Amino acid sequence: MKYKGVSEFEILGEVRGFKFGMGAMMRLCQLEGTNFKGVQEKLSQGDVPVMIHLLYSAAVEYCKLYKKENEPTLAEVANWADELGDRLQEVLSAAFEQAPDPNQKALQTEGQ
Asked: Could you tell me the pTM of the whole model?
């Protein structure tokens, strides 16, 4: 089963994954010593260490979700980002993707 917020790629012959969501954002805020708004500001300024921390946080959450034994290091995740090249933007955009409201249809018909 593939959860929402999961991106998987083959990197150097192995499937690597990132799980974006509340867990990854909590971990990122802890690494950066700030809140979500502070992290957003840093990312909007193109702060590379924050971007690597974001990917690292999502990679660790992926490992925890799928009960992988070996969590990656920051250096490994930075190297994965290099290997992803043009696909990196796809991974990063998944971090801030809004999930559709599952009850949108119910909200539209409720008042009728």
From this structure: 0.82
Answer positive or negative: Cα dihedral of 81, 85, 90, 96. Answer: positive
Token pair of 78, please? 């930075």
Sign, Cα dihedral of 34, 30, 56, 19: negative
Per-residue pLDDT tens digits for 31-46: 999 999 999 999 899 8
**Six-digit token string for 58:** 């999502």
Q: DSSP 3-state assignment of 19?
A: strand
Neighbours of 5 (CB within 10 A): 20
DSSP, residue by residue, 29-57: HHHHTS-HHHHHHHHHTT-HHHHHHHHHH
Return the amino acid letter for 22: M
CA gap 112, 81 in Å, rounded: 49
Q: What is the pLDDT of residue 92?
A: 80
Low-confidence ranges of the chain (pLDDT < 70): 1, 98-112
